[in-house]
Amino acid sequence: MAKKKQQQPGGTPATVALTAAGVAFKVHAYEHDPAHPSYGEEAAEAMGVSPERVFKTLVADVDGVLTVAVVPVAGQLDLKALATAVSGKRASMADPTLAERTTGYVRGGISPLGQRKKLRTVLDTSADTHDTICVSAGRRGLEVELTPEALTTLTQAVRAPIART
Fold first, then answer.
1. CA–CA separation, 76 vs 78, rounded Å?
2. What letter would DSSP give residue 157?
3. 28: which residues sit within 8 A by CB, 6+ positions away?
4. Cβ neighbours of residue 126 under 8 Å, at least 6 residues apart?
């Protein structure tokens, strides 16, 4: 008999991880519109937050190693810069199914926090220009707001200029 996936008590794996770490954070919930063309832009609009403060979580393959890139929804991931940030040579976007299976989250709801398998993480340096940023809380329609320092510490992220506008 197949095991049922256990629901995390008190929220998503991301919010459970934040709570367990004693990190201050704020949850923002909104009604997800499946027809919206961009998960990140939808989040910024729904929360009334500048797209420069809302960060998307992307999973890339850098020299055969899955790597998380956290960049503002207002920009795009520079794959070459991501590879350089982790001393790699070549980066490409990871297969979406592999990203979902590895992180434990669905596309559009992948959080850099509370992932099934801890992946190396790179946070774009533009996060440093904000007191707080928003990232996915682990499902579509749910974001967490926290300091860039807290996100860096919890994910053991490298900070590097990996976004382009």
1. 6
2. P
3. 43, 47, 49, 134, 142, 143, 144, 145
4. 52, 71, 72, 75, 161, 163
102: three-class secondary structure by DSSP = helix
Q: What is the pLDDT of residues 25-48, one digit of tens each?
A: 999 999 888 888 888 888 988 899
Could you tell me if residue 40 is left (phi over 0), alpha (psi between -120 and 50 degrees) or otherwise beta? alpha
Question: What does the alpha-carbon distance between residue 61 and residue 102 come to, in Å, rounded to a whole number?
Answer: 12
Closest CA to 70 of 127, 28, 144, 13: 127
Which DSSP symbol is given to 130?
S
CA nearest 7: which of 103, 113, 104? 104
State how far the Cα of 50 lies from the Cα of 38, in Å rounded to an integer.
15
Distance CA 147, CA 59 (A): 21
Q: Residue 98 — φ and ψ, nearest 5°?
A: -65, -40
pTM: 0.90
Residue 8: burial class (beta carbons within 10 Å; 0-12, 13-18, 19+): middle
